[in-house]
Write a structure and sequence with these properties.
heterotrimer, A mainly alpha (634), B mainly alpha (100), C mainly alpha (162), A: 634 residues, mainly alpha, globular, B: 100 residues, Helix Hairpins
Chain lengths: 634, 100, 162
């Protein structure tokens, strides 16, 4: 229905968007070797240029159409062809604005945050390389280009998680992220193969026109494979375990990659390939998406309740919020998922950068029990953190409310379009609401423990430099007004309607009604403030009376342990067995055995070789004699 | 003139004696002389057969064998001298450097 | 006739059996001269002369000269008897194998075999400078290379020091 009537314009300059960060990465690394302080500014400049280019394209984009830029024909094999094609439509525009906009702010922030790190040229090169990959991902006009970006961001994520690679645990966290992501990538690849096999094209626009009339089983398989890819990249059950560990990376990385942009790639994928995730074509797949999303949101929120590491709280919060996005996508409201993606990028980036500011101030202390009372010392950081807290809690009129409200509404309506979900939507609604209340609670808890009360640490905290505060203020402003802007004046609903089905949406409601709909946020924030300022006995008593529950939560439902027992250690044992038995005993044994045979026979044969010329002559004569005999006998 | 087979028997005997000498004697110069013996054995059979079949090719071959023998004598004796200089010996059993 | 054969056989054995290299060398000279006699019997006059001039003259003088120069003493130690035994067997094989079949089959004899003008210096020279001109020139180069090589091998490093 959207395929017709779209105009598409070939625009040769689209390549500039990813080109700037790529160039920036090269320059930041090479020039950075000579002048370390230049690296950050080069990277920030490249990122900003890219952002300005995106803004230009955003404003010149026709209301119903898209830009295309075919760099070259990449693969052309017997009827199948894949171009190196960039496509810039409304969805891409939104994603590009978020990626480059927030990316630029975080680059600026990193200039301050990483000012004392020895390897900052490498850091900024990786960061720009990440932007490049992420832009490939969102600009890619077919599944293959998207996959290049998909792998590229995975690689950059790995490199940046393990940025302080001299710490073994940090390097291990990077490896874990890489391996877990790989499982998801296998799903994505399988989906790509299926698509090539059954449709013969991987171009998103061509694919859209071919989708109708295929069997439900095929569509469900493709959708589930794609979703497996999404769970890997976007940290959903069962593949979410890497994201909390990914906090080993520098905090700006956590903000950019592991909160605002890369982890939302799965959501983007679902929105981009929404015609595969169609409630009418693959209802069971959508039920699976919703179930996983709701469970993830709930489980991650529970675990976040008891974390003491400020970044871990935010990491589980990210997992939980990604669950909310997938709820919307699973319910078929892709524009709502993108809406929450954008608002989440605002407030979660702000929260992460705020936590980074605090960690920077406290000399790399991340335990909230060693903080407290920082509000007086770091007023800017505290203020922006609180704004984002209220935004994520979903209180009107801050950004989080609008997107979350839409999610709840979409989840309630999902049963109408998808009968598979109908039986479950009450359950989904209740669990999602519980997760929302807990979200508000644990973020408030972290804010209270960090900024209120008395300082409990030993460092000498100080407010962060202007390069760090400025991005915080911008992001806080976006977290404050962003939702309202996108709901009203800019109308994301209408804007994205050009590329994805958006349904009814946007039923205006009064301020009173909105405030009433914010009740989970008010409840959570209220409880949080009360528990962690006035009545601190309550959480303490709770953890004492229910030690098992606390233990389970702080051990993250034993996900890591279960995976270790079920997957990692059998694999390790198998590998060990292969190493010891097959490789060392079998293959090495065969090789060494051959060598030993040669060695022994050589030892025997070398007795013939005496070094005495006369003996050699004798052998020669004997040989001649036998040669004669041979001829004579013949 | 004897039948050609007599010359061939003589040639075979000379060659065998030369070969045994080369294997048995350790003095490099004597070994060298044994090589000359073997070359001469071959020369004898060349000439005898050449006469027998009535051509000159065999005798020309003998001429070239002599040329090679002369060159070999020059080089071989030079090697014996430098061997003696290095090892203070002309025993071939002392020049066993081919084996580690 | 058979006297020449006997001289050749005896002197060849002498070359191998004499303990003193100089005696070996003298035996070899006798052997070579006797072989020259064989050549003369076979009417290869040119080769008989060259045999005496080049072998008995030049090469053996060189050998004796080197023996004197190096003052090589008598060989100490004895020949290993098992080696001699083995060699006797081997040489028996060679003897029988090489000659036996030839004797039994016999050779066709050509008409020119008895032509006395075949082995003369003139005949040899004619063939050598026409049909075998190129091998002849190559042989001269070989000799020259041999001379230069012998010089290089035998000269001491005194030239460099001086």
């Amino acid at each position: 229905m959207h395929g017709e009537g779209l105009t598409h314009v070939t625009h040769a300059s689209l390549g500039w968007i990813p080109f700037f960060p790529l160039l920036g990465a090269l320059l930041a690394y090479t020039i950075g070797q000579k002048a370390k302080d230049m690296a950050g500014w080069i990277a920030t400049g490249a990122s900003t240029l890219s952002f300005l280019t995106v803004v230009y394209f955003f404003f010149s984009l026709p209301a119903a159409g898209y830009f295309e830029h075919n760099l070259f024909e990449w693969i052309s094999v017997s009827g199948f062809h894949a171009d190196f094609l960039f496509r810039f439509d409304q969805l891409t525009a939104v994603m590009c604005l978020v990626v480059t906009g927030i990316g630029s702010l975080i680059h600026l922030y990193s200039v301050g945050y990483m000012a004392e790190d020895e390897s900052r040229p490498r850091f900024f090169a990786y960061l720009n390389l990440f932007l490049f990959s992420m832009l490939l991902l969102v600009l890619g006009g077919n599944m293959l280009i998207l996959f290049i970006g998909w792998e590229g961001v995975g690689l950059c994520s790995y490199l940046l998680i393990g940025f302080w690679h001299k710490n073994i645990a940090f390097a291990g966290a990077g490896r874990k992220a890489f391996v877990v992501n790989r499982i998801g990538d296998a799903g994505f690849l399988l989906a790509t193969f299926l698509v090539v096999m059954h449709f013969g094209t991987i171009d998103f626009v061509e694919l859209k026109g071919l989708i109708a009339g295929h069997s439900e089983a095929l569509m469900t398989t493709i959708a589930l494979c794609l979703f497996l890819g999404a769970t890997g990249k976007s940290a959903q059950i069962p593949l979410f375990v890497w994201l909390p560990d990914a906090m080993a990376g520098p905090t700006p990385v956590s903000a950019l990659i592991h909160a605002a942009t890369m982890v939302t790639a799965g959501v983007y994928l679902m929105a981009r390939m929404h015609y595969v995730f169609d409630p009418a074509l693959a209802p069971v797949a959508m039920l699976v998406v919703c179930t996983i999303a709701v469970l993830t949101a709930f489980v991650a929120a529970c675990v976040a309740l008891v974390q003491n590491d400020i970044k871990k709280v935010l990491a589980y919060s990210t997992v939980s919020q990604l669950g909310f996005m997938f709820m919307a996508a699973g319910a078929g409201a892709y524009w709502v998922a993108v809406f929450h993606l954008v608002t989440h990028a605002f407030f979660k980036a702000c929260l992460f950068l705020g936590s980074g500011s605090v960690i920077h101030a406290c000399h790399h202390e991340q335990d909230m029990r060693q903080m407290g009372g920082l509000g007086k010392i770091m007023p800017w950081t505290a203020a922006t953190y609180w704004i984002s807290t209220i935004a994520i809690a979903g209180i009107y009129p801050l950004a989080g409310y609008f997107s979350k409200h839409h999610i709840v509404v979409a989840l309630g309506d999902a049963g109408m379009s998808n009968p598979s979900i109908a039986a479950w939507d009450t359950f989904f609604g209740v669990v999602a609401t519980l997760a929302a209340i807990m979200t508000a609670f644990y973020v408030t808890r972290s804010a209270c423990m960090t900024f209120l009360g008395e300082y409990r640490g030993h460092a000498h905290p100080h407010e962060s430099p202007i390069t760090m505060v400025a991005p915080l203020v911008v992001l806080a402003a976006l977290a404050f007004f962003g939702g309202w802007l996108l709901e009203g004046p800019l109308s994301l609903h209408h804007y994205l309607g050009a590329v994805i089905p958006v349904g009814e949406g946007g039923h205006g409601e009064s301020i009173i009604a909105s405030l009433l709909h914010s009740w989970p946020g008010f409840l959570g924030v209220g409880l949080g403030v009360v528990f962690y300022t006035k009545l601190t006995v309550i959480p303490q008593t709770l953890s004492k009376t229910l030690p098992q529950l606390t233990q389970i939560l702080s051990d993250k439902f034993y996900f890591d342990e279960i995976y270790n027992a079920l997957v990692v250690s059998p694999l390790q044992k198998g590998a060990h067995l292969l190493w010891k038995k097959a490789d060392q005993a079998g293959i090495d044994g065969a090789v060494n055995g051959t060598a030993a045979v040669v060695d022994v026979s050589g030892e025997i044969a070398r007795t013939v070789s005496t070094g005495q010329m006369r003996h050699y002559a004798l052998f020669m004569f004997i040989g001649t004699v036998f040669l004669f005999l041979f001829y004579l006998v013949l | 003139m004897d039948p050609v087979s007599h010359y061939l028997i003589l040639s075979a005997l000379m060659f065998t004696i030369g070969a045994i000498g080369f294997v048995v004697r350790r003095n490099a110069i004597v070994a060298f002389m044994c090589i000359e013996l073997m070359l001469n054995a071959v020369n004898v059979s060349f000439v005898a057969l050449s006469r027998h079949v009535g051509g000159l090719d065999g005798e020309i071959a003998v001429f070239f064998v002599m040329v090679v023998a002369a060159a070999e004598a020059a080089i071989g004796l030079a090697i014996v001298i430098s061997l003696f200089r290095t090892l203070r010996s002309v025993e071939t059993s002392d020049a066993a450097g081919l084996r580690l | 006739m058979s006297l020449t054969f006997c001289i050749i056989f005896a002197s060849a054995c002498g070359v191998v059996l004499m303990r003193n290299p100089i005696h070996s060398a003298l035996c070899l000279i006798v052997n070579l001269v006797a072989v020259a006699g064989i050549f003369a019997q076979l009417e290869a006059h040119f080769l008989a002369m060259v045999q005496i001039i080049v072998y008995a003259g030049a090469i053996m003088v060189l050998v004796v000269f080197v023996i004197m120069l190096l003052n090589a003493k008598q060989e100490e130690g004895s020949y290993s008897t098992w080696l001699i035994g083995l060699l006797a067997v081997v040489s028996g094989f060679i003897f029988v194998d090489m000659v036996g079949p030839l004797l039994s089959e016999g050779f066709p004899q050509s008409a020119s075999a008895t032509d006395p003008t075949v082995g003369t210096v003139e005949a040899i020279g004619r063939v050598l400078y026409t049909k075998y001109l190129f091998p002849f020139e190559a042989a001269s180069i070989l000799i020259m290379v041999g001379v230069v090589g012998a010089l290089m091998l035998a000269k001491t490093d005194k030239g460099k020091q001086g």
